[in-house]
Specification:
10 strands; Transposase Inhibitor Protein From Tn5, Chain A, domain 1; 352 residues
Amino acid sequence: MRNKTPQRRTARPQEYPTEHWLQTLQPYLTPQQYTLLQYALRALLVIGALAQTRLCLWLGNRTGIAPNTWRQRFKRLRLHAFPEAPIFRTLLASVVAQLRLPRVLLALDATACGTRWVVLSVSVVVYRNAIPIAWRVLKGNHPEAWNPHWLALLKMLKGALPAHLPVWVLTDRGLWSPELFRAIVRNGWHPLMRIQAWGTFRPRWGRTAQAIASFCPEPGESVAVSGWAYGYGLRCTLIVCWGCEAKEPWYLLTDVSDAAWAGWWYGSRSWVEQGFRWLKRGGFGWHKCRLGSAVGVSWYWLVYAVGCLEVAQAGASCSGQGLWDRRRCSASVFLQGQMACGALWAGAMGFG
């Protein structure tokens, strides 16, 4: 009589929520990398930092393995090459799917960790915060052009989202360039690039360029003008928005004609600053990690990214706040999510 092969049981997402987020990345990781990222993510949600000594001591107390052993394991992890392209594409698709975003607002910005590192980050802005989904780690105080890195990140993300899903890419005045504008459009996305007011713009009905400031509306209004910018080499739409309480208007470039209504979404770009604050002193303590290689920083940022997604979804279920709700509240969605996740894992016995 033949013995039946026992069915292998698969853990359900509701049983192990953090494993569910990491499972989407498992095809691109080795078993050792996947296991270490699991431990690092659980430690991050409980102790709120990935500082090496604190991380290894906590894992040593929880698992019975010597802290020095954990230190050597994470050291070996930081020596492995980081698989950028598949990880970033999967992260973007996972954030959009898990949060059920009807449209995606991506913010491009840079943050620094002292004078050691500068990270160029592409983040999804939601819940008055930001979730990083792609990044490039550069040395601090090392002058170099950033545009090639931005173009490389955008190229990696091309095709990660369905074509019917509207995606808006928000950039500040320091990042505007025709090359970056065209790269965003090649991805099938819509740029909202803020520019300086001292430039010129040639409207579609005009023969000569006019000062951009001449298109400024009254406070509380917005206008959209189609034409050419950057020496007439870039065909685009100029959107000028002036909020009722704002000190100055926003001058934005996009590829969508008659899109004056889209200019108000640019206000969500400032949430990426709150996201950087959360990664540092606000929640996850990145400034406490003294890593000696850019690859090591990239691995830790992967843990931060999955941790942000976890606390965002947990906090949204606790607070009931909308995706792009701008009303102030006593506790942010990310803070409530961190408390909920920390309580869940602090009370768990062992690591399953």
